[in-house]
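Worked example 4.2. Below are the chains of a multi-component assembly; read each line carefully before continuing.
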Amino acid sequence: MHMNKKLLQTLIENKDFKQIKNNINNMNIPDVAELIEELDNTYSLLIFRLLNKITAARVFSYISRANQKKFLLLVNEKELKKLTDELFLDDKVDLVEEMPANLVKKILKTSDEKERKLINQFLKYPKDSAGSLMTIEFIDLKKELTAAMSLERIKKLGYNKETIYTSYVITNTRVLEGIIELKDLVLEDSNEKIENIMSKNVIYVNTHDDQEYVASIFKKYDLLSIPVVDNEKRLVGIITIDDIMDVVELENTEDIHRMAAIEPSHTNYLDENIFILAKRRIIWLLVLMISATFTGLILSRYEEALESVVALTFFIPMLMDTGGNAGSQASTLIIRSITLEEIQFKDIFKVILKELGVSSIVGIILAILNFLRIYFIQGYSIKISLIVTMTLMLTVMLAKIVGGILPLIAKKAKLDPAIMASPLVTTIVDTFSLIVYFRIATLILKI
Amino acid sequence: MHMNKKLLQTLIENKDFKQIKNNINNMNIPDVAELIEELDNTYSLLIFRLLNKITAARVFSYISRANQKKFLLLVNEKELKKLTDELFLDDKVDLVEEMPANLVKKILKTSDEKERKLINQFLKYPKDSAGSLMTIEFIDLKKELTAAMSLERIKKLGYNKETIYTSYVITNTRVLEGIIELKDLVLEDSNEKIENIMSKNVIYVNTHDDQEYVASIFKKYDLLSIPVVDNEKRLVGIITIDDIMDVVELENTEDIHRMAAIEPSHTNYLDENIFILAKRRIIWLLVLMISATFTGLILSRYEEALESVVALTFFIPMLMDTGGNAGSQASTLIIRSITLEEIQFKDIFKVILKELGVSSIVGIILAILNFLRIYFIQGYSIKISLIVTMTLMLTVMLAKIVGGILPLIAKKAKLDPAIMASPLVTTIVDTFSLIVYFRIATLILKI
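Applying the procedure described above to all two chains together yields the following structure tokens:
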């Protein structure tokens, strides 16, 4: 399906440029990008120079940031223009945002005045907003046109647009009035006026809407693209589904990082320097130590009990680990369900009931198995065995209920459930399990 | 943008059915579905009966499984046919798979012989395979046609297809030869033969490919749809991006569940019964207790040390919690990077170096802050303070390195990194931190 790297190297060694050129300009863009990234600088530049203008720009937008930078430093001014001329505006803005100053200057030099203005305007949209995600390459129509006239306009504008499947109908002051799908233009009578076939029920977002919200709208309505308007409902751009796919992955990465108590970041792990990686982790490690202070205090309060029955110490790690795991199972399930909008705050009593049921089952099974292990296999006294298993069961039950409700409360308080739940669940469960442990112990052992 | 529920109820009370009908048939399908789900059974059936045939079927495919079931039990046979007739085949197959037997019988009764055969064939594809995800509603063309003739055929076939933006060019034996985008058909000279404008570089998948692989192909090539072929490369269906968006969310949910040591499931939390929820959690809680056995054993080996210096006990939870958190930060970052294909096994030395750097920074900061707290604020002896902080630092370093490399090793061994890493990291870090703690303690305290 795609050209072999070895074959390509043979062709390069044989200086069979015609064959190479013929091959690579007919390959799929992401495959060419992959090939170019695998070759060393000399070869990749050579290959790159054989690509036609449009393919070159598209391949460029597919290679990694690090390689883009290397490339832009290698090429001459004319080639730089060839590259950036055909880039979509949103890709160019991303490039300007992330390249070093000397390269930015070079890139902006290849743009005309009008484009430079647009780039500056784009740079002002907040990161993660619809405005920073949109492209301005779209097809606008007037409602007075016929289907045939619209198709003519699309043909005229068409080739360079990121998507031509949807056209946007606007007034003279650029206010969004309706949308029309290419398929409807093709399927309808060619003399029909746009006005009569467009959909007036337009789903749109504002430039300042958050990208997570935009993604949820895409999912709800199964969209391929969405118009972006300003505060006067004037059409300023569109967002296409390929960018939304990336947003969905990024948001999922953020959620996963937050659940593991790491400050989320969009940078590739291997590209990030160790000081930034350390900074992203240290904050939450420190916060999570708050719980450690509590457990230390509780243990020192029960110093006498610990001195007289050292065996009590042996089960502390097991009790705390199991409580922690049981709690994070519940909180992870609930946090994910909140993200997917399957659970809301009003379901809190259903969640409590469910977790009560689940934790009873899980707690009883774990308690029985542990009793068997501690009493029969390890040979501890019946009293110690009872203390440990009773604590285990209560800890699991509390951990699951607290793990289930805290994310919902965090959400209700407009805090991020993934950030807030984890440290609080740990602190509450750790503290509770130790207090219960020693209460039961002092009661049964009469110490 | 959409009709208010209260307004609708007023209209229902006033029996203004004409107004209701007019309104709901012009609303966006997902909004109608949302409205119907919020109303009680009598009202929702009433509203549903006012929808025209195609809208009714589309609305139906948007409501939740639980409500679909309720609906199918409420409607009469004729209405059931109205509903299921217009469903896409893939949606109908999903319905047959998940509804109770009595309803399945009813649904199959509304299908003709040919469709029943197709449904049975679909049911044989493995769950999570491309075959079970595809739809058979697509446009096939022959390469001898012209652009104009193709557009005619699309017009004729078009209305009921899930996507008409891409047509598939096949031979007389249905072998896939090429694809052509609707936009190219529109933009090209209408007398041009398909043969000359189609792309022969077709990206396709096999019916038995896993849906996760299909999703990765969509992302790599920014596709809106992909053809699915059998082992003879005959075209049997297509997969569209809306279904892939759902796959991406499901796969992310699975990963998140696995990282929290829960057996993944696709069922909504609130819809799942407590025994299944318990089963999904108990297995890993039991596995994770293996580490608890080790820690118990180590602690009992150092019974004497614990007896003579009880204060050593107070810091055990803090050391183990911090080690656990530090390890899961590293393993989560690496697991996610593996999923996103940013890191491979060959990067293992880079990861070790990075984690060594990060953990040194994090370890030193945590150790210093803890020394200040333990020695100056809590007033423990210099020896105890040193033992605890040295152990803390070594634990954090080991946790991060083990957390960083274990997922890569799991991946290399073709095991799921998310499943394997977490219990192993905990076991190794817990065991190691206690051994180090008591080695240092016995050395410094000479006990």
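Take a moment to check your reading of the output against the notes. Chain B has a mean pLDDT of 87. The domain at 269-445 of chain B is CATH 1.10.357.20 (Tetracycline Repressor; domain 2).
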